[in-house]
Amino acid sequence: MAIFPTLSVMTTPTPPTPPAYAPLPAKPSNGMAIAALALGIAAIVIGIWALIPLVGLVAAFLAFLPAVLAAIFGHIGVAKSKSMDGTGKGMAVTGFILGYVTIALIVLTTVWWIVAIAITGAGSGTYYS
User: Fold this and answer.
1) What do you get for the CA distance between the two ends of the chain, in Å?
2) How far are the Cα atoms of 14, 35, 43, 57, 61 from residue 54, in angstroms, in the given order?
3) What are the two backbone dihedrals, phi and then psi, of residue 42, each rounded to the nearest 5 degrees?
4) What is the distance between the alpha carbons of residues 38 and 119, in angstroms, rounded to a whole number?
5) d(CA 91, CA 36)
């Protein structure tokens, strides 16, 4: 004699769960292009201050290295994008353009200040009594 009687209830079987879909593989990124863009933006933001007297000396000094690195990494990023089906080419081109614009801004501002100082004769050491 059984204490609990067995129930014979008909249940419908649950359908099998569909297989989980694997996530799409991540598209490879172009690290040189990202670095060129970040350095180019940093260089132009700092380098634009080179036009202001005295502040410009510090700005030109601080912006020069990121600008040169942006130009170098930009060219490497463009070369790398050719083997990656164009991944990051726009970022790389923008990075090296910003780098070159910042370098040109710094050089032209420096030349302008040298010419301005030479024309005005400041620092000639000639004192009138």
Assistant:
1) 131
2) 78, 29, 18, 5, 11
3) -60, -40
4) 38
5) 7
| pLDDT tens-digit series, residues 71-81 | 999 999 999 99
Give 61's contacts (C-beta < 8 A, 6+ positions apart): none
**Among candidate residues 107, 116, 17, the one with its CA nearest the CA of residue 64:** 107
Do 96 and 70 contact (CB within 8 A), yes or no? Answer: yes
* Per-residue pLDDT tens digits for 76-125: 999 999 999 999 999 999 999 999 999 999 999 999 988 988 888 766 66
pTM score of the predicted model = 0.74
Calpha distance 98→43 (Å, rounded): 8
The two structure tokens encoding residue 42: 């940093």
Cα 65 from chain centroid (whole Å): 14
Cα-Cα-Cα-Cα dihedral of 77, 80, 84, 85, to 10°?
A: 70
Neighbours of 69 (CB within 10 A): 19
* CA nearest to 80, candidates 27, 28, 25, 32: 32
Residue spans of beta strands (DSSP E) within 1-129: none
